[in-house]
Amino acid sequence: MKKLTLFLLFISFSVFSQKELPSVSITTLDNKSVNVKTDFNEQDKIYIYSFWATWCTPCIAELEAISEHYEDWKKELNIELIAVSIDDARTQKRVKPLLNGKDWTYTILLDSNQDLKRALSIVNVPYSIVVKNQKIVKILNGYTQGSEEELHEVLKSL
């Protein structure tokens, strides 16, 4: 009975793992509201939502590592990386100064109320989701050196 329960639990997680991106509005660096579901919905384009914070060293390391390959990836694949800062009102003032020192060509969004983070049930950052045609097709949690290559392989497989 225990095995059957575990199997059914596993199947239910598998069925719901490819859920749709929620319709949540967050802001740009210019304080303009964007809806992640309706404003980033080009057919067959792959969107990588990378959740990060200024206080998260692995987050910044991940975005730096991806940055080294990002332009090549964009030539190879129809992708866009959206770096979603989850810095709250207390630490949000650090976002722009940090970005000034970076050569990131990503779309940067601010989830200062953490509405999107909550809607996706994200607990820890760095956390990345890969979305294609409004469906979440892959979730990557955490970062270790070289993980960007795993991400690239996932992107190529789509």
| Residue runs with pLDDT of under 50 for 5 or more positions | 2-16
Strand order of the largest sheet: 2-1-5-4-3-6-7
Q: Supply Rg.
A: 16 Å
What order do the SSEs take from the amino end to the carboxyl end, as H and E? HEEEHEHEHEEH
Count up the helices. Answer: 5
Q: Which class of secondary structure composition applies to the elements?
A: alpha/beta
CATH C-level category:
Alpha Beta
Estimate what percentage of residues fall within beta strands. Answer: 15-25%
The shape, in one word, is globular
Count of distinct strands: 7
Description:
Residues 2-16 have low confidence and may be disordered. The chain has a single domain, classed as Glutaredoxin. It has helices at residues 2-16, 57-76, 95-100, 115-119, 147-157, and strands at residues 25-28, 33-35, 46-52, 79-85, 107-110, 127-132, 135-141. A hairpin with a 4-residue loop joins strand 1 (25-28) and strand 2 (33-35). By secondary structure, the protein is an alpha/beta fold. The chain has a seven-stranded mixed beta sheet. Helices cover 36% and strands 24% of the residues.
Name its key features:
single chain, 158 residues, alpha/beta, Glutaredoxin, 7-stranded mixed beta sheet, 5 helices, globular
Q: Short description, anyone?
A:
With 158 residues, this protein is an alpha/beta fold.
Task: Indicate the topology.
Elements: H1 2-16, E1 25-28, E2 33-35, E3 46-52, H2 57-76, E4 79-85, H3 95-100, E5 107-110, H4 115-119, E6 127-132, E7 135-141, H5 147-157
Parallel strand pairs: 3-4, 4-5
Antiparallel strand pairs: 1-2, 1-5, 3-6, 6-7
